[in-house]
Structures are given as structure tokens and as C-alpha cells.
Amino acid sequence: MLAAHSATRTMPPCPSAMDDNQMHDYQTRYPQETRKMAGLTERLLNEGMQRGEQGILQRQLIRRFGPLDQEARQRLQQATPQELECWADNILDAKTLDEVFICH
């Protein structure tokens, strides 16, 4: 096994390769690592969902309004989840690209 930060402690096994009993044992033996992995998993899932929303909205904007300028692409990349949700609603009624980016 690979050595962890100290020479006396080894790295825990990979949770994705475990059955239910092994996972329970892992969670019991490594509660701190389990909490860290749960937090990391949630963060990565949220980031992935946000990137997916950005990609879909970008495709819709291009289809509706044509190629996006650098400013619009940058706004999409830096958008919060709340902004993306607002813009996804706005695209249905907006007459211009600028109207999409107006949230009340």
C-alpha cells in the first residue's frame, strides 16, 4: 500500500471498488476521510452540474442570437447558479441577448 503522510498510517482503500459491507467498514474506520470525500463529491457534482447548465445555455443562446462575443461567453463562465437559472428562464421571452442577462 502507499504510505500516507506518516510512516505508520497507510492510505485507505479506494471506496469506489468496495461492496456495501466493505464501505460500512471503511466509514467506521475512516470517519474523517469519509466526511472529506462526501464534501468533495458534493462540490464536484455541483461544479459539473453548473458547467453543464452553462454549456446548454450557451448552445441555446448561440442558436437564438448567433455567435456570442467574448463578454457574453465570459459572463456565462463566471455566472452563479442563480444567474444561470434566471437566464435560462429569460431566454424563452428575450428579444435580444441583453434582455437575457437582466435578472430582477
State the helical fraction. 55-70%
* DSSP summary: helix tally: 5
The rough form would be described as rod-shaped
- Main pleated sheet: none
Along the chain, the helix and strand elements come as HHHHH
Please identify the oligomeric state.
single chain
| Structural class determined from secondary elements | mainly alpha
Q: Tell me the total number of β-strands.
A: 0
* Distance linking N and C termini: 55 Å
Number of domains: 1
Q: Give the uncertain stretches in residue-range form.
A: 1-7
Portion in beta strands: under 5%
Mean pLDDT across all amino acids: 86
Present the secondary structure layout:
Elements lengths: L19 H10 L1 H35 L4 H9 L2 H10 L6 H4 L4
Helix pairs in contact: 2-4
Descriptive key words:
mainly alpha, 5 helices, disordered N terminus, 104 residues, 65% helix
Characterise the protein shown here.
- The protein is 65% helix and 0% strand.
- With 104 residues, the chain is mainly alpha-helical.
- It has one domain.
- Residues 1-7 have low confidence and may be disordered.
Could you give a short description of this structure?
This protein has 104 residues and is mostly helical. The protein is built from 5 helices and no strands. Mean pLDDT is 86; it is low at 1-7.
